[in-house]
Automatic annotation (TrEMBL), chains A, B:
One of its GO terms (molecular function) is NADP binding. Belongs to the homoserine dehydrogenase family. This is Homoserine dehydrogenase. Pfam families: Homoserine_dh, NAD_binding_3. GO terms for biological process: methionine biosynthetic process; threonine biosynthetic process.
Length: 379, 379
C-alpha cells in the first residue's frame, strides 16, 4: 500500500527507513515545508498533492502540533484514506471529532505511536478489551521525567542541573514544560482511558502535579523511607465516570516501577480476569516511534478496521473517591495541611489519606503561594 | 465460530467462562475422559465426535501432555480445523511436524498461552518480527521458580521449605522437577527461539541448570554483593545457529528482573531497531492461560493465518561464543574450577569469564560428584 508521509523529521526519517525495501508498504510522497533535496522526487509542499493522489492508501502524520495536523488528517480521511499518526496532542484534543470522522468515512485511524513511542501499548490494550474488562491502567508514560527522577535517585543532583543534562542529551526539549509539568502524560492518559473505558474524558479535566519543584532533599527523604519517586499516571473505572490523575508517586523501592531506568516507560493495565499486564520499552525516539507507526500501517494492510474502540460516552473525571497518603513539602503550611499531617520527613510532612481531588486542587493553589511546593502520592 | 474443547480442567473451565455469552465464539463440544454431568450435552468422550463435526471451526487443546494431544491436534488439522493449544510440551517436541501440517492443511495453529500463560508474548514477538530483526530474547519464563527465588530473597528460608509452601499454595506441582530443573522453561524458550529466529532448535540441545540446589547461604552471598538471583532463559542469534541456555543468573538488584515478584513472569525481546520490549504478567493460572487461548481464537475469527512464522531452518545450539563470570559453590572444587576462580564469596567462588557451553557442561558433570553443587551466571 502506498503511504503519503506528512512531515519528515526524526520520526519521519525512521518511517522511511522501516519501509525501505518492503513490498507491502511504499512511501510515495512526503509533505515538507522547506525544500529537501535528499528526498528527491518524494517531496511535495502542498497537502493537496497527497490528499488527491488516488494511489495513496494511508496518510501517516508525524508533523506534530494541533494545526495544520488536524485539518490535514480530516482532509485525508474525507478523501477515503486511512490515517496513522504519532501525534498525541491532536488525538487527545480532537478525540471525538477524529474517531467520529474515521467511522463516518469508513477508514482506519491508528495512533499506537502516540502513547508509549515504540511500546505496543494501545494494540495490547485493544486486544485485552476484546475479552476482558479493564479495571485500571497507567504507569510511567514519559521518558524525560523518568530520566530525571532516575538520575536524582542515583546521585545527589539538583533538578535544574539534571534537567540541563537531559536537554543536552536530547531527552528533554528546550522548553521542557510539557514533559515536567505533566501535559504530555495527560494526553497519553486521556487517549488510553478513552479507549480502555469507552469514554470521552476531556484532557483538561484530569488533575495533575508535575516534578518541576522536586529537590534533592525530597529524594533523600524518600530513599530513607524505602521509597522511589516516579511521575505516574493513573486511570480507573469509577461509578459514573473515570478516576484519572497524574502525580509524582512514591512507590516501594522493590516495585517494578522503581526499577525502570533512564528514559524508559512502563505502562500497565489490569484486566478483571487476566490480572496485571505491564509493557516496558522506549517511549520516544526515532526508531521506537517510527516502529509503531509502521506497525499500524501493516495492521491496516492486514485489514484492521477503524479505531481501537467504536464506543464513547462522555465521562466526567471523578477523583473524589480515591484517597491515599501524601508527602508534602511547602514553606507555607496552612491549616488544611496541618490538619491532615501525621508525620514529618525531613523538610516535608506525610499526611493521612486525603482524596486525590482535594489534594491536587490544594497543591495547584499552593503553588501560587509557594512556587517551590512539592507533593507526591504514597502508594 | 464453534469451538471443540479438548480437556476441561482448570484452563478449560476458564475458556468456557470467557466464551460464555459471546456471539463470535461458542464452545459446542468438550472432550472429557470421565462423565461430567456439569457440562450437560457439551461433553463427549470420543475425539471423532469433534473431528468429524463440520460445524466446529476451531479445536482448542488444553489436555496437556504429549499423547494423545499430538494425535488429536493432527487429526483436527487434517479435518480442516484451526487449532489453538496451551500445550508447550507438544509444540516444542513436535514443532516441525505441527507447523508443517498446519501449512499443508491451510489452517491456523496458535499457541500463545503455551509461552507466558496470559502474557501477550508470542503475539508481540510475531508483530515485532514483521518489521524488525530480533537480536535476543528471554527472561523470567517460569512462575514457580520465581516464586521460590523471590521468597528466598525476602526472608531466610531453605529451598525444601519454600518448595513445600509453593506446593501447598498450588504454585508448584507435586513433582516439581519440570519447573525447578528448567524443563518447562526450556520448552518455552525452544518455541520462542524457533519463532524469533525462524529456526528449528531441538529442545534437548539447549543446556540448562536449575535451582534445586540453591541454599540460603548462596542467597546471602548474592545479596551482600548487590545481586538478586533469578532463573533466566536466554536465546540470541548466533553465526550459524542459535545461542540458547537456561541458568540461574545474578542480576543487579536494581534491574527490572530483580523487581519481578511472586509467581510473575517478565519476558523480553530486543529488536535491532526498536530496542528492548519487556512483557510482565501471570505466566500461568486458570484465567491468564484461558485468556490467551481465547484471544488466539479471536485472531483466527479475524482471519489471522497459519503459525507465527512460516520459516524454519535447522539451527544447532551454539553456546561456545557466549562467556561471562559465574558464581559456583561445590564441596569438591576441581582443577578446572580452581583455574578459573578469581574471588571467594561465602562458601562459593566467582570465576573469570567462562563460556556458557563449558560451564554448563562442567556443572552437569559436577552434579554427579557433588549433588549439592550450585552455579549461577553473573550478568
Amino acid at each position: 500500500m502506498n503511504i503519503g508521509l506528512l512531515g519528515c523529521g526524526v520520526v519521519g526519517g525512521g518511517i522511511l527507513d522501516f519501509c525501505a525495501g518492503r513490498e507491502d508498504l511504499t512511501v510515495t510522497k512526503v509533505l515538507v515545508r522547506r525544500p529537501r533535496p535528499d528526498l528527491g522526487a518524494l517531496a511535495v509542499t502542498d497537502i493537496a498533492d497527497i490528499v488527491n493522489d488516488e494511489a495513496i492508501g494511508i496518510v501517516a502524520e508525524v508533523m506534530g502540533g494541533l494545526h495544520p495536523a488536524y485539518e490535514y488528517i480530516c482532509a485525508a480521511m474525507k478523501a477515503g484514506k486511512h490515517v496513522v499518526t504519532a501525534n498525541k496532542a491532536v488525538i487527545s484534543a480532537y478525540y471525538p471529532e477524529l474517531t467520529g470522522l474515521a467511522r463516518e468515512c469508513g477508514v482506519s485511524l491508528r495512533c499506537t505511536a502516540a502513547v508509549g513511542g515504540g511500546i505496543p501499548w494501545l494494540t495490547n490494550l485493544e486486544r485485552c478489551k476484546r475479552l476482558d474488562s479493564i479495571c485500571e491502567l497507567g504507569g510511567i508514560m514519559n521518558g524525560t521525567t523518568n530520566f530525571i527522577m532516575d538520575a536524582m535517585h542515583a546521585s545527589p543532583v539538583s533538578f535544574p542541573e539534571i534537567l540541563k543534562q537531559a536537554q543536552e542529551l536530547g531527552y528533554a526539549e528546550a522548553d521542557p514544560s510539557a514533559d515536567i509539568d505533566g501535559d504530555d502524560v495527560r494526553r497519553k492518559l486521556t487517549i488510553s482511558a478513552n479507549i480502555a473505558f469507552d469514554a470521552l474524558v476531556q484532557e483538561e479535566d484530569i488533575p495533575m502535579f508535575g516534578i518541576r519543584t522536586v529537590t534533592d532533599g525530597d529524594i533523600r527523604a524518600f530513599k530513607a523511607h524505602g521509597f522511589v519517586c516516579k511521575l505516574l499516571a493513573t486511570a480507573k473505572a469509577a461509578e459514573g465516570g473515570v478516576c484519572a490523575f497524574i502525580e509524582p508517586t512514591l512507590v516501594d523501592s522493590h516495585d517494578l516501577e522503581a526499577a525502570v531506568p533512564k528514559n524508559f516507560n512502563l505502562i500497565t493495565y489490569c484486566g478483571e480476569k487476566v490480572g496485571r499486564h505491564s509493557f516496558f520499552g522506549q517511549g520516544a525516539g526515532r526508531y521506537p516511534t517510527a516502529f509503531n507507526a509502521v506497525e499500524d500501517c501493516l495492521d491496516i494492510v492486514a485489514g484492521k478496521p477503524g479505531f481501537y474502540t467504536q464506543a464513547m460516552k462522555p465521562a466526567p473525571v471523578l477523583c473524589g473517591g480515591e484517597a491515599h497518603p501524601y508527602y508534602v513539602r511547602t514553606a507555607c503550611p496552612d491549616a488544611f495541611l496541618q490538619s491532615v499531617t501525621v508525620e514529618h520527613w525531613g523538610d516535608g510532612v506525610v499526611t493521612a489519606c486525603v482524596s486525590v481531588e482535594e489534594m491536587l486542587r490544594w497543591g495547584r493553589a499552593q503553588l501560587d503561594k509557594d512556587p517551590g511546593c512539592f507533593l507526591a502520592g504514597i502508594r
